[in-house]
Structure of NAD(P)-dependent dehydrogenase (Short-subunit alcohol dehydrogenase family):
Amino acid sequence: MKLKDKVAIITGGSKGIGYGIAEEFLKEGAKITICSRNQEEGLSAQKELSRLGEVLYLPADVSSIEDNQMLVDKTVDKFGRLDIFVANAGTNDSKKTHYLDITEEQYERIMGVNLKGVFFGGQIAARQMAKQGESGAIVNVSSVNAYLALDSQMCYTTSKGGVSQLTKVQAVALTPYNIKVNAMCPGPIESELMRRVGSDPQLFNTVLSRTPIGRIGSPNECGRLAVFLACEDSDFVYGQSIFIDGGRGFQAFPTPGYKTVTDEEYEKLMQLQ
């Protein structure tokens, strides 16, 4: 088991990519804390995940520094230490908003979760890891859209670009403490955010047409990459943003002859966790 006896916090671990990461961490022997703002959803995820190992659920808003501190403190109280911090929690607008119409409230809400939460969550986790005097790992969840100019999702893409740059400077700052920091950049993955981005079949098919592999990915595929970035197999990997996107990040033009998703298939995909 690659993460045997390791203790991890996974923010936004009650659904989507976070849930997939939680499952894969538990399969590899980790003890985990998951958090979400929706307590009912979080407790349900805890119950399901507990079949695989030890799981603590805590309601938290990662845009709050106090809540990030609480996550670390209660994790250490429960498990005695902290080895891995996965900054996965993210949010986005459910509607497209042009740059000229974005409000301060929209900006602050998305940046608070997607960038401030990663910045201070990682800082607080790293302080605990440094105090323990052993090795540690931080895995940030950025996005393929950190590198694509998606003008209908300006706050989201800007925040994820910040996460990828933050990952580099975190890695440099935390190297003396033997804490490695890397990011993963998911493309189209079965998740609530994907349902928002692909909110209509035509747009969804446009995304697929620029994804060479011709399908969307699964949360557990992201989970297996997160395991690699958290375990000793990646101990010479520092400050990297690794794409897990089926080729979406470098596909400039639609793939000739790609299979479109029918309305029925689309509806099934949108109902996935």
